[in-house]
Amino acid sequence: MVSIDVKNLKLVYRLRQGFSLEMADRRVSGHSQIKKRGRTRWITALDDVTFNLRAGDRLGLVGSNGAGKTTLLHVLYGTLEPSAGTVHTQGRVDALFNISLGFRHEATGRRNIIMRGLINGWSPAQIDHHMEDIIAFSELGDFIDLPFKSYSQGMAARLAFSIATCMNPEILLMDEWIGAGDTDFQHKARKRMAELAEKAGIIVLASHNHGLLRASCNRFLKLEKGRAVLLDELPAAPLRNRR
Amino acid sequence: MPGALTNAFADLAEGYEKRRVWWALAREDIGDQHRRTTLGPFWLLFNYMTFAGTFIFVFRSSSSGSDHYPTYVAVGLLVWLYIMETITQAMTVFVREKSFIKGTRLPLTVYVMRLAMQSVIRTLYALAGCVIILLLAGDSIHVGWLLALPGVLLLLLATPGAILVFGFLGAYVPDSQFFVANIMRIGMFLTPVFWRLETAGGGVRSLFYHWNPFTYFLEIVRQPMLNQSMPLLALGICAIITVVLWLIGLLLLGTLRRKLVFVL
């Protein structure tokens, strides 16, 4: 059974400043998320976040810049470890974060598919099996044999999306990337995401694009300064303009 | 401490499962460094040959005294360059892999082994040059050379441990990167790569011979090549250094593997 259970999740990290001969900055920050002691600053990125997702749930993460959306995705993926609280995920997780993360710029698209596959733990036979599917879905055509660095943002996004979704992940985490593709591709991507969710998967999508979120998600989590509120419906206007 | 070690071994086990990844990445790295060149990785061979050739040519008369000087320099330089490159690269290994560490869930062992693999591949090209020099110097192939094998194995075994230690050092203490680079540059002259203990004339130089860990890693490979004897004392010292490196490396890996991402 695919599920995500997050309980009292807290993430605090230390931002260290190296030793320097400059005078220490003794001003007290007004921002409550940042605590300062000597040369170290502690940033509370997520504070007491609790929610559960079951098969078929598509969660939209909303909140202004720095609210903790990306951090939450990284915690769910497992690249960041919570400082307190628990995160239980069941199911094969794949993630689409910053597009350039985890791609080799000098290697061709094809080679990058192989590398990504190996990193995700696929066997060479599985990679071979899905290679043509991935290339076809990405619509990269002959570009697939050119180095990754020659791709436009949109092309890179298309490749990343194709790789991440072709192996039918049970849980898919996505961060604000979809705007990069053109309209046709966005349409195709939305369709594939719906298919994934229908196959009893879970999707978590962080975005500022409320139209997109409304079209793709059935639940919403609003993050504000690291704290979270679960919503059943998305407010009409962008959150930051409502205050 | 037991917790940290369990944690570290979990990372190692995951890294072993992902061995195809570091093998592929290491090959990719070698290719990347020489992309757009005609000679490709053979530049590694060429660089080594000019380096070794210059040393042999310049220092032969003054420092050699005894025979087999080309062998002495060729083998010593091969091991030294391997150590130097591995340590210098290890200082920045995690910083360079920032995008992968933040974007994927690969165990850190993958990056460590990738660098180790890369160092070995690079050294294999230089090894071809070393063999050429040995043949040109008129050293006939000797069964006694096989005695160098334990030394080579120990050197390879110490590599991942050293990468772990220097990798975490470089990530957590960024300044150390420049300090170590400096030490490695001077180390070439303080380590008996092209001078010998017999011609060192005692004094400070012999201190640099005896109290220098690099000396022993050079000797465990070089001595069997020169006089077909097993340098047991040096092997013992290197074995102890290897165990200590691994122990510190594993403790660092166990305690910091999940925290590393925050300092990058």
TrEMBL record, chain A:
Pfam families: ABC_tran
The family this protein is said to belong to: Belongs to the ABC transporter superfamily.
Domain of life: Bacteria
MF (Gene Ontology): ATP binding
Keyword line: ATP-binding, Nucleotide-binding, Transport
Keyword Transport: yes
Name of the protein: ABC transporter ATP-binding protein
Keyword Transport on entry: yes
Residues covered by the ABC transporter domain: 21-243
Listed InterPro entries: AAA+_ATPase, ABC_transporter-like_ATP-bd, ABC_transporter-like_CS, ABC_transpr_TagH-like, Bact_Polysacc_Export_ATP-bd
PANTHER family the UniProt entry points to: TEICHOIC ACIDS EXPORT ATP-BINDING PROTEIN TAGH (PTHR46743)
UniProtKB/TrEMBL annotation, chain B:
Compartments reported by the entry: Cell membrane
Top-level taxon of the source organism: Bacteria
Matching PANTHER family: CAPSULE POLYSACCHARIDE EXPORT INNER-MEMBRANE PROTEIN CTRC (PTHR30413:SF10), INNER MEMBRANE TRANSPORT PERMEASE (PTHR30413)
Keywords: Cell membrane, Membrane, Polysaccharide transport, Sugar transport, Transmembrane, Transmembrane helix, Transport
Species, as recorded: Pseudohoeflea coraliihabitans
Keyword presence, Ribosomal protein: no
Membrane spanning stretches: 42-59, 71-95, 115-137, 143-166, 178-197, 232-253
Stored InterPro entries: ABC2_TM
Main subcellular localisation: membrane
Family statement: Belongs to the ABC-2 integral membrane protein family.
Annotated ABC-2 type transporter transmembrane domain residues: 22-225
Topology term for the membrane: Multi-pass membrane protein
Protein name per its UniProtKB record: ABC transporter permease
